[in-house]
């Protein structure tokens, strides 16, 4: 079949949208659409399995299953529970206090797992029952946990930054980790402010009647958990380990603490942790592998280069272009997971980034901030899927709470969009 590249590009996206609308899993949709166009364009079907293999055989990607495993180990070891007690002792019994505690603990876990869904599971298992007992609506509890866990892909270490660095070699993982720290903290603070405002405006919860945990006892119990991000990030900063080795270090530390200190991990628990982490990692790596087929097809056709050239001609203002990119990513985040967003949209954005001379590290933080927002707002926020299950709440019941919290985090996104120094000052200070 002799078809021109413009027609094939239209077919590529028509197949993608059609399969997605038909309910085909996203990874399969990307793989099938890409393979069909590779066959029609006579690009060589033998390249499909080769690209699938090469896309997941990269050394830096070893960090992904390791950070997933570390997050699940810390959840099962009871480390999240010790951090909750310490945060409760610091915040105290006041309206909205449990929400602040939840987000604080999620931010600390961001320095361990680097995965929003993993943190949603770990923090939600401990905090959602407490919030429900304190009288908070199920939708509010699910929304707060999901929003707090979204900061985990910004606060290093971050699986999202590892994937972005693989796709954009000019942005190193250490520089991205440093650049994401302050935006991640600011996002957490904004979410705390939003959660407290919602609780007080709606007079939600009654935790002011709950006892305050003793501070020093809680600190002693949580010291091992607090040391985890210090050890992981400290070893990265000093150059003792690479990001991939830091992920292995996180797993080793979690196992030692769970087995020897907290004594909460036995052989059965370790087996269950390994099975769960394999399932989660397999989903992520399958999307990575099949998205590469879609990327090969679109790159061969020049699809994204043509689209980028059209956008540059249509939107000459840098400010307007940044706003357009944010809107595209926010809309995509409502329907597509973060990993796929990188593979689908980065080929479109890279020529635009080069045209305007944008810093690739700053742009990586910008994309990840958008993806973090997408993790906790309906209809397909991955963190919300996890927390709704834990809270036994419908996705519809979270809508007003999740979108309200998203507005507070949107303020941080706009700040980082138009003041790049927010993201770039720390990597520059550290010499990255």
Automatic annotation (TrEMBL):
Transmembrane regions: 12-40, 61-79, 99-128, 140-164, 176-201, 222-240, 246-265, 277-301, 321-349, 361-381, 401-426
UniProt KW keywords: Cell inner membrane, Cell membrane, Membrane, Transmembrane, Transmembrane helix, Transport
Intracellular or extracellular location(s): Cell inner membrane
Quaternary assembly: The complex comprises the extracytoplasmic solute receptor protein and the two transmembrane proteins.
Domain TRAP C4-dicarboxylate transport system permease DctM subunit, first and last residues per copy: 13-421
Descriptive protein name: TRAP transporter large permease protein
Record's bilayer topology term: Multi-pass membrane protein
One GO location term (cellular component): plasma membrane
Protein task: Part of the tripartite ATP-independent periplasmic (TRAP) transport system.
Entry similarity comment: Belongs to the TRAP transporter large permease family.
GO molecular function terms attached to this record: transmembrane transporter activity
Highest taxon listed in the record's lineage: Bacteria
InterPro entries linked: DctM (IPR010656), TRAP_DctM (IPR004681)
């Amino acid at each position: 079949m002799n078809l021109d590249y413009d027609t094939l590009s239209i077919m590529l996206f028509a197949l993608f949208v059609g399969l997605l609308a038909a309910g085909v899993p996203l990874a399969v949709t990307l793989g099938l659409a890409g393979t069909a166009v590779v066959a029609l364009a006579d690009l060589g079907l033998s390249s499909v399995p080769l690209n699938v293999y090469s896309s997941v055989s990269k050394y830096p990607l070893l960090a992904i299953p390791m950070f997933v495993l570390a997050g699940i180990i810390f959840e099962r070891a009871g480390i999240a529970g010790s951090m909750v007690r310490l945060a409760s002792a610091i915040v105290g019994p006041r309206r909205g206090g449990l929400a602040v505690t939840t987000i604080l603990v999620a931010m600390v876990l961001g320095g361990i797992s680097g995965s929003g869904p993993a943190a949603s599971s770990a923090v939600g298992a401990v905090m959602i029952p407490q919030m429900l007992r304190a009288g908070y609506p199920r939708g509010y509890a699910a929304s707060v946990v999901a929003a707090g866990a979204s900061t985990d892909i910004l606060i290093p270490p971050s699986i999202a930054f590892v994937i972005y660095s693989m796709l954009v070699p000019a942005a190193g993982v250490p520089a991205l980790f440093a650049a994401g720290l302050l935006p991640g903290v600011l996002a957490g603070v904004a979410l705390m402010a939003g959660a407290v405002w919602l609780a007080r405006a709606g007079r939600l919860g009654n935790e002011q009647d709950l006892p305050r945990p003793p501070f020093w006892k809680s600190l002693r119990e949580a010291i091992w958990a607090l040391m985890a991000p210090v050890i992981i990030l400290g070893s990265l900063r000093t150059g003792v380990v690479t990001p991939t080795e830091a992920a292995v270090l996180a797993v080793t530390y979690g196992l030692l603490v769970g087995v020897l200190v907290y004594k909460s991990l036995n052989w059965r628990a370790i087996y269950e942790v390994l099975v769960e982490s394999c399932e989660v990692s397999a989903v992520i790596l399958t999307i990575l592998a099949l998205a590469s087929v879609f990327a090969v097809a679109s790159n061969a056709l020049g699809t994204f280069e043509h689209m980028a050239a059209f956008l540059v001609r249509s939107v000459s203002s840098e400010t307007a272009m940044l706003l357009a990119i944010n809107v595209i990513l926010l809309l995509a985040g409502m329907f597509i997971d973060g990993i796929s967003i990188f593979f689908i949209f980065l080929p479109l954005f890279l020529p635009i980034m080069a045209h305007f001379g944008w810093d690739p590290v700053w742009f990586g933080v910008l994309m990840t901030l958008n993806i973090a927002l997408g993790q906790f707002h309906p209809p397909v926020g991955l963190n919300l899927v996890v927390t709704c299950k834990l809270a036994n709440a419908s996705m519809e019941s979270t809508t007003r709470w999740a979108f309200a919290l998203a507005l507070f985090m949107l303020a941080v996104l706009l700040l980082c969009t138009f003041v790049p120094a927010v993201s770039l000052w720390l990597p520059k200070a550290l010499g990255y």
